[in-house]
Specification:
alpha/beta, 4 helices
Length: 71
């Protein structure tokens, strides 16, 4: 498992699905100041329903574009 300290040092947490949101938040908290990103609008809407504010929405299944955005 990754430590809370390592998560706090992250620039971004990328969620790939609603189940990844639940799996992460069942164990960890998203630190203040760490950007949230979602692959696809469905996951972004789920994050909003779970109380997360603004998040970066990445195009669904365009992994080349996702790599360009994140790097």
């Amino acid at each position: 498992l990754i430590s809370a300290e390592e998560i706090a040092k992250s620039d971004l947490i990328l969620f790939t699905s609603p189940s990844s949101v639940d799996a992460f938040t069942n164990v960890y908290q998203v630190p203040h100041g760490v950007q949230i990103a979602a692959i696809g609008s469905y996951t972004a809407k789920y994050l909003k329903r779970k109380g997360f504010g603004k998040c970066l929405v990445l195009p669904r299944s365009d992994f080349k574009k996702i790599g360009e955005i994140l790097c």
